[in-house]
Amino acid sequence: MANPEYVELLRQGVVSWNKWRKENPEVRLDLRGADLRQVDLREARLGWLNLDEADLREACLDAVNLNMSSLHNADLSYAQMGDVNLTRANLSSAKLVGATLSRFDPYESGAILRDANLSSANLNYSFLQSACLDRACLHGTTLIGADLGDADLSDADLSDADLSWAHLRNANLSRITMKGTIIRHLNLLTTKGITEIKHQAPSCVELHTTLLPQDGSALHFLRGTGVPDEWIDFYRSTMMHPIQYYSLFISYSTKDETLARRLHADLQACGVRCWFAPEDMKIGDKFRQRIDEAIHLQDKLLLLLSEHSIASTWVENEVESALEKEDREQREVLFPIRLDDMVMQTSRAWAATLRRTRHIGDFTKWTDPEAYQSAFERLLRDLKQS
Q1: Taking all residues of the chain, what is their mean pLDDT, rounded to a whole number?
Q2: What is the pTM of this model?
């Protein structure tokens, strides 16, 4: 059980606790069953701790580092957990009823929430990539904009949950329970287990913003969610046909890789073939030669313009290759989008020329799920082949 001395040290304040932990890194702390109700622990260093069965109801855990900590059977009901780091933390069977876990640390991944009770919790914009949420209770949970890529949600209860703008690429939805679930601005093209979903009652589906596989699983899903037959027929006749898109080379600065990876994943999921260096560069390839070949082979070059890419010699060389291709083939190749306002201010000749001569797509608010989705849909529309 918890050592009273350590519990009291925590209750004295985060500054003294963090100082003590820094000075005593070798001490293995056991806080099992600790009573930390309503304690302000924001920014506390709680990584690698045993907090199994701890009582953290209504505690403030904003920006807390719980990396590799165990909170099995802990009670975190109505706790505040914004920007918390739960990298590989074990919250199996934990109680998080009404907790706020929005905007996780962007490096968080692999949290274990198996059998956890997250009913009515706020998981908006949380980063739960590769998380284990199997058998979790997510009844009435808001997951707006949550990143659940590669997450295991098998056998979870998502009744009355709000999945608007959530990212579910490669997520496992096998045998999840749905009723009253809100489905809008959702890409289910690569989601697993759609035909195994348990539809206990109708859900709320916004058809025109939902992307479904181009096969019978889409119709099975729509019937299960209670979409009327006439709407399903309309969906089949208007949406279920292959759209041909131009292929892309993605040009960006490595400092903008977070968005580049997101665009690559979402474009691929929509059927857009992309050449993306981290995925397509082979061991031993000569950089310049391989990149020139890739630009030559793809239809368009998607250029992510930012303060970082405008200063990048590599990006400038890629733009020059694309412009040479435009001159050679007498057609437009460059697809520029801006991530900030630097291209509107820069004196760099090549970027200033683009500013004066090209319409540049606006992704400056890409961290806002709704703004990103709107800009992405515009990009996808413009990539359709005539």
Answers
A1: 89
A2: 0.66
